Amino acid sequence: MDKIAQFVQKSNCNATTVAVFGAIGAAVVAFKALSFFKVLVDVFFRSGINVKKYGAGRGGWAVITGASDGIGKEFAFQLASKKLNIVLISRTESKLKTIAEELEQKYNVETKVYAMDFTKGADQDYQALQHLLAPIEVTVLVNNVGTNHEIPTPFEQETDKIIKDIVEVNINAAMRMTKIVVPQMVARKNGLIINLGSFAGLVPTPFLSVYSGSKAFLSSWSQAIGAELAPKGVQVQNVNTYFVVSAMSKIRRATMLIPMPKPYVRSVLGQIGIAGGASTPYTSTPFYSHAIVNWLIDNVLTRGFWVKQNYNIQTDIRKRALRKREREAAAAKSQ
């Protein structure tokens, strides 16, 4: 009888253990399901803060870096369509003047342009920008300018110039531009800072180590200053971006995962203050397919798995890029 009692007691204990772990498992699954449902609600049904809050139609100005092409140019057009005046900053003055003229004619807004090479990090450029922006009411800053490795490259083989350029453009430019405009935003207790981040800052990317590190910095820095500035009325939003058709991405054809700049920028401006697929503070992944991928990265498999995936992807891209260089070199030699 004692053995039967022990068996029954042990069976009851095992059943209780299974029930407890089953309940925990069900709770985890339910939590994951709810978090995924929230992503879908964010990207398909919720509307973010209206840019009218940031002076649209009331004399406010948006400052956009890297404004002559791609995402930056699209930000200029969409913000101008919402009646924000526009400051365009990029390398090529002729392109900036052409865009400025089109914005003025199409949307009846004011524009200013300033041509500079952000890789130089010249103090005189930032001093000139400070002088240019001081008299106007800057309500929006889009830190869009960025640069990348020419091809996936092991860190020890990368050139000092490319390393310096990435740090100067992707990190220093964002900080220096923000430092120029934040004091007046804080004084008015109103402003919006959009930092163009990357999935390379979400998951470390081998062979793009400096670019990946720069975007990880941008993510962490955005969260830090976001917490500082939120009580002062300034909204900071680091935007997790997967691929978008652009000159920098070297992608020319749009897919479900790789949108054109127009729908991508529309999603960013339509979901200001909404997380979308992002799980970190002061961060947004607004484009629907990017949001779903972001959720998968955060909730499915391990971070080590995703780093290994990035390693494999970039290894393949590097091999193809090196073969292309060899073909081009051979063709040039034969001429």
Automatic annotation (TrEMBL):
EC number: 1.1.1.330
Residues bound to substrate: 198
Active site residues per record: 211
Primary location group: endoplasmic reticulum
Entry annotated with the keyword RNA-binding: no
Highest taxon of source: Eukaryota
Functional summary from the UniProt entry: Component of the microsomal membrane bound fatty acid elongation system, which produces the 26-carbon very long-chain fatty acids (VLCFA) from palmitate. Catalyzes the reduction of the 3-ketoacyl-CoA intermediate that is formed in each cycle of fatty acid elongation. VLCFAs serve as precursors for ceramide and sphingolipids.
HAMAP family: 3_ketoreductase
The protein's name in its UniProt record: Very-long-chain 3-oxoacyl-CoA reductase
Organism: Mortierella polycephala
